[in-house]
Write a structure and sequence with these properties.
Helix content is about 75%, strand content about 0%. It is mainly alpha-helical. Pfam families: Na_H_Exchanger.
Length: about 500
């Protein structure tokens, strides 16, 4: 006898819960975006209300499914962040991003040892708390970089690139720390060997994938994509156009996630470098296209000049004997006009990787995947147990320390040495403290990665956090995830594009 899942019609109650949940996710996201410039806060709130922490309307099997579906949304958010970035900026700002990431990792871990006298943590437990708070929420960082959130596109700027690259590095290190904590929580005697193996494997795979992808993109993918863009048949075919480019991105996206995950590093890292590779191909194609358009414009101008010269020659004939090819006697003659539809306009409208993603995937990511992801964060928060007096004040103090640990990352933008050309160009603008404040606040939110690491530390066979310690850590994660986007929204409303002053545009 074969096996299959028995199809049954959902009940009216289930349909009402799911439909109202999805609608309210978007409604509260819109409200919190307009009031607080932080769309994700409203969606997290709906997750708390509908999920296990409060009403419990979402069944446990639904919550598990939505966690997986939301993580797919997070992967797409990270892929879009890489696709929207400038590849050249990523390479040139790599040292700065590394310094920002190290500051955002080491300082929160160091400040977490204040918990030893503050809340009677042991040294190992303080390290576990610091590991959870050393991460940066990639989903939140990309949410605050979204043009719909800030009103302009920061993703290809130097400021946005430095922020996103540092957040990705934080995520990779958090993946390593979660592996370390998981091994420390095991009772087997092989823990130390496993720690060394896992850490070495993750570091090696992370560096190896980045190194391998550079020549593959440069010498294999770039020529193939340029050859594809040079032909027109696929653009008009039913199997081609945007659909074909989305299919190619899907194959590359899934392949890099699988390679990163099975090899031993974070799938989010695989999604990011896949997006960066697609950004590199898009930049190369745009450069090639702009050259072709410039040549086409020069040819058009030459053709106009030739036609005008011919007209001047025709007009030199005597007026009493008009030439048969003169303008008045040639109804078929149509002078060239820049307003007519030319091949240059067709090339301009050709689909690209970025335009295909925006057309096909951005709507479903904005209204379905991203809200589900932030809602899944909400119902993973232990909301009711948080309200213990001895936990609340310690959690607030710890959250303040963790905010300071990430805000310090922005100081690098003030003291980072700049080239002579850049310094001369911005000599009158002063230090880039607005961009420093923006970057520091954008790094504050912990979100999904912090919750993951704290739950690993709490649920291992040999717990690395007691119940009160787990709740204190969660207070730090929750308050940072609220304060970070709110601060970013206020800074953007107050200073606008001026946050990129100091040569960080």
């Amino acid at each position: 006898m074969w096996s299959s899942f028995t199809y049954h019609e959902p009940s009216i109650v289930q349909l009402l819960i799911l439909s109202s949940w999805i609608y309210l996710l978007n409604l509260f996201g819109w409200i919190s975006q307009h009031l607080l410039s932080a769309q994700l806060l409203g969606q997290i709130l709906i997750g708390i209300i509908y999920g296990t922490p409060l009403a419990g309307w979402l069944e446990e099997s639904w919550e598990e499914a939505f966690v997986a579906l939301g993580y797919v949304g997070l992967l797409l958010i990270v892929f879009e962040g890489g696709l929207s970035s400038s590849f050249s900026n990523v390479i040139s700002l790599l040292p700065l991003s590394l310094c920002i990431a190290l500051t955002g990792i080491l300082l929160p871990i160091g400040l977490s040892f204040i918990l030893i006298p503050l809340a009677s943590f042991s040294t190992l437990h303080a390290f576990a708390a610091g590991a959870a708070l050393s991460s940066t929420s990639l989903g939140t960082s990309l949410s605050v970089l979204n043009p719909a959130s800030v009103g302009f596109d920061l993703r290809q700027s130097k400021l946005g690139t430095a922020l996103l690259s540092a957040a990705v590095m934080d995520d990779v290190v958090a993946f390593v720390l979660s592996s370390i904590l998981n091994n420390l929580g095991e009772t087997s005697s092989e823990g130390n060997t496993s720690i060394g193996t896992n850490v070495g494997r993750t570091i090696g795979v992370t560096i190896g994938l980045g190194i391998v992808l550079i020549p593959v993109s440069r010498f294999l993918l770039k020529p193939l994509y340029a050859r594809l863009q040079s032909t027109d048949r696929w653009k008009e075919a039913t199997w081609g156009g945007d659909s074909m480019l989305v299919g190619l991105m899907a194959v590359f996206f899934i392949g890099m996630i699988a390679a990163a995950g099975f090899a031993g590093t974070s799938p989010l890292y695989g999604a990011y470098i896949a997006g960066l590779a697609c950004a590199y191909l898009s930049d190369a194609a745009d450069t090639h296209s702009s050259v072709k358009k410039r040549k086409g414009s020069e040819e058009d101008i030459t053709r106009v000049e030739s036609q005008e010269l011919g007209l001047r020659r025709l007009n030199t004939f005597p007026s009493h004997s008009p030439h048969p090819l003169s303008r008045a006697h040639s109804p078929q003659f149509v002078p060239f006009s820049f307003g007519t539809h030319t091949s240059t306009d067709v090339e301009k409208e050709s689909p690209t990787l970025r335009s295909s993603f925006e057309r096909f995937l951005t709507p479903i990511l904005t209204y379905v995947f991203a809200p589900i992801f932030f809602s899944s964060i909400g119902y993973c928060i232990p909301f009711v147990p948080l309200w213990k007096g001895r936990v609340i004040w310690r959690g607030i103090i710890y959250a303040i320390l963790m905010c300071i640990g990430k805000l310090a990352c922005g100081l690098w933008l003030i003291f980072w040495p700049r080239s002579l050309e850049t310094a001369n160009a911005i000599s009158g603008s002063g230090p880039s403290w607005k961009g420093a404040a923006f970057l520091g606040c954008a790094m504050v939110a912990r979100g999904e990665i912090g919750l993951l690491i704290s739950q690993i530390a709490y649920n291992t066979p040999k717990p690395l956090l007691t119940e009160d310690e787990f709740l204190i850590v969660n207070w730090g994660i929750i308050l940072c995830t609220i304060v970070g986007p709110l601060s970013v929204g206020w800074i953007v409303r107050r200073f606008g594009k001026n946050i990129m002053d100091g040569g960080w545009e």
